[in-house]
Structures are given as C-alpha cells and as structure tokens.
Amino acid sequence: MAADFEPLYKILELEQKKGYDNTAVMGGLDRFLAKWAGQFGGGIPQPRLLSRFQRLVVKGDYASLSTQQRREWVDSVLSLVAEINGSTPAEAKPPAQTPFPPRAKRVKEIKPVAPVGGYGLDSPITAVKGISTTLATKFGKLGVKTVRDLLYFFPHRHLDYSQIKHISQLTEGDEQTVMANVWQAKVTRLGYRQGTEAIVGDETGNMRVVWFNQPYLAKRFATNVRVVLSGRVSLFKGQYVFESPEWELVEDRDLVHTGRLVPVYSLTQGLYPRQVRKLMKEVVDLWAWQVEDFLPAPLKERCDLLELPQAISQAHYPEDDMVKDRARMRLAFDELFVLQLGVVSRKHDWQETQPDSAFAIDWGLSTSFIQSLPFKLTAAQQRVLEEMMNDLQKPKPMSRLLQGEVGSGKTVVATVALLMAVANGYQGAFMAPTEILAEQHFTTLCQLLSRAGGQEEETPYLSRFSGLLSRPITVALLIGDITPSQKQELQKRILDGDIDIAIGTHALIQKGVDFRRMGLAVVDEQHRFGVTQRSALRQKGFRPHMLVMTATPIPRTLALTLYGDLDLSVIDELPPGRQMVKTKWLRPSQRESAYNFIRKHVAAGHQAFVICPLIEESEAVAAQAAVVEYERLSREVFADLKLGLLHGRLSGEDKDEVMQRFRARKLDILVSTPVVEVGIDIPNATVMLIESADRFGLSQLHQFRGRVGRGQEQSYCMLLAENPSEVGRARLDIIENVQDGFVLAEEDLKLRGPGEFFGTRQSGLPDLRMAKLSDVKILELARAEAVALFQADPGLKKPEHKLLAGEMARLWPQANAGEWS
Ligand code: ADP
Ligand code: MG
Fold first, then answer.
1. Which of helix, strand or coil describes residue 225?
2. Which of 51, 422, 548, 774 gives the lowest tally of CB atoms within 10 Å of its CB?
3. How do residues 356-393 score in pLDDT, each as one tens digit?
4. Does residue 699 line the site of ligand 1, with CB under 6 A?
5. Which ligand approaches the C-alpha of residue 434 most closely?
6. Residue 388 Cα to ligand 2 middle (Å)
C-alpha cells in the first residue's frame, strides 16, 4: 500500500491549531499514529527516512509529553513527512537502481526498529503493552512465547459478521450483524438466573437483545450509546430477538468483535475470546509491519504474493474474504518454501559432498539369496529392488524412501541391500523404532540368511552365516538390555569391522557405537523416527547409502514436500493370498460378544491380540495399565486360556520370551501396549481387539490391523471406544470401511493436518500450520522456487538472501546448525 500522508498531515496540523492538547483525533494521537503506521508504514520507500519515521512515530507516548515536547515532536514529524514526500529529491530516490518497486527494496535493507524501549520481535510477549507475566504463562501453554509467536498465532477460522444489516432486514436463524442505538439496558431475570436485557433500535425499527448470565453488561450500555451486535437472531412471540450476541461499542477504533470478519482463536483455560481478540488487534496493528519480509522481491512478484506484514495482519483481521485467502496463501507458501529449501539443501548435502561410495552389484549373491526364499518376490518387490540396485552402483549415496503397505514385504528387499553392502566390504546398519522390532528383524534376518547356507550361533545376539559369500557373514543385535560387557564386546567388534550387519534401535547410530566402514543404513518406519538420523550419521562422519522404509502411504506431492530429499520407491502390491482384515466398530455394550468372538477363534486354533489404550504420559503408566488389563482378562474373562503380556517396560529377555511363546503358539492371546504397532509378524494370529480405538490415528489403527491377516485365514479387527469424540467417531467410521492404506493416509491428513500427521514437531522439520493438503499448486510453486533459488545461491550468501538465510537458521534449528549463517 503506498503511503497516504494526507490524513496524517491534516491531523498534525489540526493538533497544532488546537494547541497540542491531544484532541485532534478521537482516542488520542498515539492510537491514530500506530494505526496509520500499521497501514502505511511499509510504504515509505527510503530506508533512512523510514527508520527515522519509526523512531519518531511508533513510540506511543505522545500523551505523556509536555506541551513544549509535543510541539517539537509534531514539528519534526511534519518536516519528516515533507521530506518523505519528496521535497528533498536526493533522499527520495531509492539508493540503488533496481527493476523492482521501491517498496520491496525497503524490506530488504531495513532492520526493524523496536517500537518501545528497544524491544524486537523476539522479545518475550510481556514486551507487549497489557500482557502481564500471568497472561504470558497462559500464552506459553499454547507455545506462544515471543512477540513473533504472537503474530504467528493465527485464528483457526473467522466468523463472518461483515455484512451490517438494518433491523428490518433481519431474518430468523442466521448469524447477522446490526448497528444500533441502545434505548435502554437493564438487569433482568431470565429463567433462573440474572441476565441483561436491552432494547436497541436503528432507523428501521427496534428490537430486544438478551444476554444470559451476564447481568454486569447492563452497566456497559448507557442510553444512546451505539453498539454493533453480531450473532444469531431468533423469533420470540413474533418478535426478533438477539440471544447473547457478540457486542461492541462503536467508538473511534476499528471493530474487533463484530461488524467484520472476526477471528476465532484456539484458546486455553484462562484466555477469553474478547480479551485475546482485542489484544491481537493491537499487537497486529503495532508490530506486524515490522516483520521483515524474507522473500526476495522478484520471487514475490513472480508468485504474486502479498507482502509478509500485510499477510500477517490480514490473516488475523482480514478486510474481506479475498484478502484473507491471499494472506493464507502467502503464509502457506512461506512454510512450504522454507521446508523445501531445507529439504533440497539436505539432499544436496547428503549426496554431493561425499566421497565415492559406489557398490559393485553382486548379482550372483542376490540371485542365490532370492532363490533360497520360501516364496517368489512380487513384481513390485522386484521393481523396487532394481531401483535400489541402480542407486547403489552410483557414486552418490542412495537416499531412498521405500513405501509399502503393511505386510508388502519390505524386509526382504532391505536384506538384499544389506547383503550388497557386505559383499562390497562395507558394514550395514538396520534400525528399528523399538527394541521389540529390532529383535524381530534380527530373528527374521537370521531365518532368511540361514536358508541359503549354514548358521552358526555364537550368542543369542550374534550369528554367522556361511554359504552366501566366500567368508561368513556376521549379524549382531545391539539393544539396551544386554549386559554391559556383552555390549562392550559387540561395540568393539563393530568398530573392528568384524560384524557385518548390526541391528538395533536408532541408538545404533547415536551413542557410543562406531562403525569401521558403514556403507548402508536401513531405517525402518520412517515416520516414527523423524528425519534427524542422517544428521546423526553425518556428525559421526558417515555418509552411507540410506534406505528409509515406511508403511504409511503418503500422497506423492506430500512425500515430495516432506521427504523431498529422498527418492521414492513404492511396493504397491501385496504378496498373493493376503486377506483383507474385516473391521468392525463395536458399541461398549458389545464387549462380551467381542470376547466370545476371540474365544471362538482360539478354539479353532488361532491366536489373538488385545491392544490396550494409548496412554501418553509415559511408557511406565501405559505398562501399568496393560498389567491391570492383563490381570483382569486372565482372571475374569479368559481364565481357561493362556495369556501373555507385552509392554515396553519388560526386560529384553522377558519380551523375547513372550514373543517366542506367542510365535510358538504357547500363548492364545497377547495383551499388549501399542508397542505391537509396527512390524510384528505372527501369521497364525487372526483376531485383534483394540481398546479405546478412537484415541489412535487412522494410520496407526491401520498398522495395528496389519498385524493380523498375515496368514491365509480370514482375519478380524474389532474396535472398542467408550465415548468417542466427533473426530474419534469419524476415524472409526473410516477405518471400518476403508482398507486401502493410501486412502486412509489421506483421510488421516484431513483429520489431523500435515503437521500432526507427520509429527513434524518432533521430527526436526519446520511446522506446517497454514499449508493444507489441498494446496498442491502452492506446493509445486514453492518447490520450483526453492529448487531454483538453491541452484542460484546454495549457501544463501548473496546479500538479497540475507534475511532468508536468517529465517532458515531460525526454522531449521539443530538439524542444519551452522549451514545458513
Ligand atoms: P512389511 O512390508 O510390513 O515390513 P514384511 O517384510 O514384514 O512386511 O513381510 C510380511 C510377511 O510377508 C513376512 O512374513 C514375509 O516373509 C512375507 N513375504 C514377503 N515377501 C513375500 C512374497 N513375495 N510372497 C509371500 N510372502 C512374502
Ligand atoms: Mg516391516
């Protein structure tokens, strides 16, 4: 917006005439100036003048000055305005010739000037007038700590109170807004309680307004004040009545609660909508325009994006729906662009800055391994294998995401890759999200490798396999609860290069373990892991090939967004003979019949899982709950059956034993905390009962469900939920009817939003708040721009990218430490 100095000029002149009594404008000069600056401050093209202007104008303390000081101050503002308006041409010209509008210029070159007493946007929110430490604590609970956080604390929706109607135009039922005079307001009895009743009128008629439970309002509405009322209109005894509408006195300031698009914030206890709206309006007016726009001007121009300060204010208090959309677009673009830029740079970093790591593919080895399997690879497995082999031969390290439904057979593919590493004299690491899964991978791998040759078991944690290579292949399991001396020995042998394949949790690459020559890292179940593993590896000086596996199908565009640093392979076919798992959401009253159903299947020689509720406080609490449920079921429900218990607090040995016994069919029912979620493979288990199923995400439920239906038998999944929320019910309804993991992932995304879905908060990726699943266009735009910008200036060293570099450093903190600054 080009600065319009006319009103400023007029007001200041009037103020001079009136003898500096701060009455030239209603509400006082400070408020007017802050508002004017918020609207037009960005339109001052000359950096030097702008900063002078900021120092002079945004101080907010005209009211406290003496008359003499006011006179001086008004004089200096007026002369500054004259200067800005071009009476000194040398200054008015932008400092350098540029094809872009001068306005864009200033955002690059100006440091924002703190509005009050040297505070910047990164100050704690107590820097904002009216925010006490108590209030700050409440905002803190919402993750809002700094002034910047507050500016980025966007409403989740807006109420449209923008159309002001006449009383005669009101209709019953709809949300509507009128502006009226108060004739009378009084405390009255409404039902059993006191409330406020008012009669208001405009030139077309009068009407009654009632507020339940708010007798104190009566005092706010003196006769003849003007109010704006927004809310639902109902018909009572043939008369229109406003029931507990939002209200606002018409003063000289902008409407905040009524008469416009009114923001609705997600609040926490102790924060009230009116209070927060009012506060946000002031914060936005006073601070938003000081946010530095970090996007280079040409880019903004190409993509037709709003200026950042404008986008921020419009996202809170939009002028209309159209600007609101443009504001969201700009902010969504920012999120996706910053994400993409980080991802692109990581990929580059991973692939380009690394010594030659090409493997020679040993086709003989892979063929003899594959032929030794008890099944034939599916076409999809074969295709993915080829894609992977192709990567491994290249001098750049592989960086591949392998996506495949639960049970699609990703482990075999990973095993071939690990063998290639070993054949080339490298070591391989295979990482799982939990110890139980690491153990299972170890067992599976041992089974697979032993089919091709001899197995020689040294300890339960270490085996050697002959027959595949000219030398034996050593595979080790490294998990938390082996004895310290065993652990030390394994670590030493990994360091010596004596162990070829090490299986474990991510601790494998994090603490105390050093490889002699790591050539491949396989990471199972990516989305529970986060993206930080590569950084961990890099910090250790390794740049191995990387295969990341996930059972969560992700829409391709989003996969590119979040894992854009990975190439994508998909196993889109299940091994033949897989059954779909019949899924049923049961009412609480059907619990007994669920137990009978389990009993029936056990009688037929099958096994069952009972999954205990998700308890987030700690694994200890979850374990405790599982123990209680296990005891209840053992005593009261299935006294005649053999039950096992699995939870994260068991020692490795105990977990092992339970899994062994379940696998060997010595147990009928396995009661488990949600640790069973990923990977556990027991083909004879055909029934699963999930408690409090409404508390799990769709993808997670789908994962659970994938634990059954692994054999040839028809399998079943029963879902129990005591008192599901609306979203919970929606989820249960979907999981009951949809089998396709891909569709489920999309539904999950819709219900939870990308940030929560991917756990970006924990994963070290910047958060997505404004970007939506449906923003494919913005996403593609952001991606293209990020790639282009990275090519032009990979280190963001050019002066015009300085602000962007700062933003990157802020949003990609640990992972890329040092890269952007
Ligand atoms: P996931 O992709 O979920 O990790 P797994 O690798 O655990 O799946 O494989 C699931 C089961 O399917 C295992 O028992 C595995 O041995 C088996 N399997 C893998 N590939 C095939 C295939 N091509 N034909 C038949 N069974 C297979
Ligand atoms: Mg798996």
1. coil
2. 774
3. 678 999 999 999 999 999 999 999 999 999 999 999 99
4. no
5. 2
6. 17
